[in-house]
Task: structure prediction
Amino acid sequence: MKNILHVASECTPFIKTGGLADVIGSLPQALKKNERMDTRVILPLYDEIPEKFREQMEYKSSFDVPLGWRNQEASLFTLEHNNILYYFISNDYYFTRKGVYGYYDDGERFVFFSRAVIEALPHLDFEPDVLHAHDWQTGMVVALAKIMQPVENLKTVFTIHNIKYQGVMPLGTFDDFFNLSEEHIGGMEWNGMLNCMKSGLYHADKITTVSPSYAEEIKDPYFGEGLHPVLQERAIDLTGVLNGIDTDDYNPMKDPYIPVHYRSSRGKKKENKLAVQQKLGLPENGETPVYIIITRLVEQKGLHLVQHILNEFLIEDVQLIILGTGDEEFETYFSDASNRYQGKLVTMLTFDEGLARQLYASADFFVMPSKFEPCGLSQLIALQYKAAPIVRETGGLKDTVIPYNEITGEGNGFSFSNYNAHELLEVLRYSLEIYNTPEHWHQLLKNINKSQFSWKDSARDYASIYSELTTIYA
Ligand code: GLC
Result:
């Protein structure tokens, strides 16, 4: 039996800003179920975590966390949920704030969290064999575990969910945060700054990222966000393990948010479409192809491409629904555009889980033309709800969406290669052509029904990384 402790900054159902939370909220369950590992998760106790969870938490202990020349106090709480034990670290100064990220001292907040995880280890009643840390917020815990060896033979895995965000601070903060000798600066520094992502990459025993294609891409300057030399250096320890989704939760046969349950029936899917059209004030017509975009409205998601071709695309007999929040530039553009295209385009600047699922259930197509995409989960959810994904061939999108091929009849969606608006337009028009050719459309839907992205295979891949670490090197 192996003990795995996941360290992360967000996790569903407690706190979520993006796909990282979904992964942390479902991978431990899969590891426990399929691989029989004792997997636990440690998280910051944010103010934003709903009261219904807070009141079930059990207080375990309090301890000092040394940060450079000072001590901060931390308290440890536990909560069992869905068969997994979660630990929460509280500190009023760092985590009793609104939201999750976006503070000037985010770097310091997560250095504190990382340091606190090390101090918490003796209080857990659980001795991890592997500490599995995720994204920049936990890069320093990997470094500290390596340098301080708080538990004998403790191994570390560091997973990159998005290399764009690195947690960068002035180098002068090294003495403020750590009581370490200067020889350790080298492993934490990058381009003259303290860099949490780099620290994780440098110190981890194994590095993973969330798709095989992204694992290749980030070794290249175009995708590596300046860290490609570090990844090239560590290439033999870097692998891509595709994310899964919780197929029990994202299940159109029993999703409580959607009006009509279905397995693969187009008739029932149409009923969901009519319900959404009615709700959003769109012309009610089950035959009109519905395209949806559900995303954070940020540049990464390829929204500039959508802007460029919106007018040309909306000439077609289609409906487009956009759901999400994000940068003002996109929020303004797409909500103005929906005023111009009433009856064709609806933009909803909010994030609402129930509505999102109703859209997946109603849609024929899911559009995701990302500039880069480490894995992407929503194209997998779209497939689960039998909507055909239309994606750009990058990262995990490339690994999960196979373009439909009229000759062989293979493929579960549509894709285009260059970050170019007219390539997107072309593939959108092509998707309509297929929609209007019953022979091909039925074949495509058949292939979509067979697409499977549960955690099963990926949990096995992680389990073998853990056992390689704990048996060969122990
Ligand atoms: C980040 C990435 C996304 C990935 C998710 C979970 O949000 O941008 O592609 O699916 O992490 O790993």
Summary: The longest strand covers residues 70-81.
